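During the first year of the project, the team set up a workflow for recording each protein of interest as an amino acid sequence followed immediately by a discrete structure-token representation. This format lets reviewers and collaborators read both layers of information side by side without switching files. As required by the reporting guidelines, we include two representative entries from the current panel. The first entry is reproduced here exactly as it appears in our internal archive.
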Amino acid sequence: MRIGTAAAVIVALALSACSKKEPNAKERYAAAALQNARELMNDPSAVKFKDVTVLPSAKCMYGSILGKNGFGAYAGYHEFVWVDGKIFIKDSDIPGEYNDYHLYINKWMDCTGEQIKLKPDQRVLIPQA
């Protein structure tokens, strides 16, 4: 009886492993960019994203980010731009090196300007992460 149960579990695991789709290069880049943005925040495990557009060929992404402030409380969603390993947050009380509004606007314009040049299949849209 135990051998039959063990065999069934092994077959189920093997079939579930076969059904998983391997992420493509754009999806891997998006996952790495989101992880990097998380690591730049005060409490990486508490960070949430929504309405994120990742542009791998432009090496940038933008959307909304929810993180904790210096007091450990959520500060509400804020618009952000991530460019080459640096995060720029619009109107944020979350401490950070890149919370300058003008810098945010410049980076956002650079990133979204690149989006106009790209075809829809060159983008990765993430509704919530």
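The second entry, processed by the same pipeline in the following quarter, appears below.
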Amino acid sequence: MSELPSPQLFPEEPREAERPRAGDQPRPAGFWVRALAMMIDGVILAIVGTPLVYLYFNDLVAYQLTSWIVSFSYFALLQPRMGGSFGKKAMGLRLVSEDLGPVTPGQGILRYFMSMVSGMFLFLGYLWVVFDERKQSWHDKVARTLVVRAPVSG
């Protein structure tokens, strides 16, 4: 009679054959890991934005304009340069072009503005990641970008 494996409280490390290797095609990032990355980005922007409330407490227009400039700089300009936001980096994700190359500044800007449209209709553009085969949101589709799990380097 063969013995049944005993249940383990903590699963074993993946075997060598199961581990991702350098050069493997990156896997698309799913909804929940992307949502968590976005929450991290929200915390970062709140930390940066809180001093703005005190600087522009009586001037709502100046506050909103400054907040928009910070948001635009973070998502539209910084992400293409870094290959993702700080939240994406923290979650082991990368923002890439559909050809898996770097995102151009134009793609970053288009993705930023289209993300507003993704959120306008009950966040359906963001939820689209759940149903899409390539895990692309509306703003990813329009900007021709992918959010992928960063491959193992080396």
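For the second entry, the following points were noted during internal review. The chain has one domain: 27-148. The mean pLDDT is 85. Both points are flagged for discussion at the upcoming steering committee meeting.
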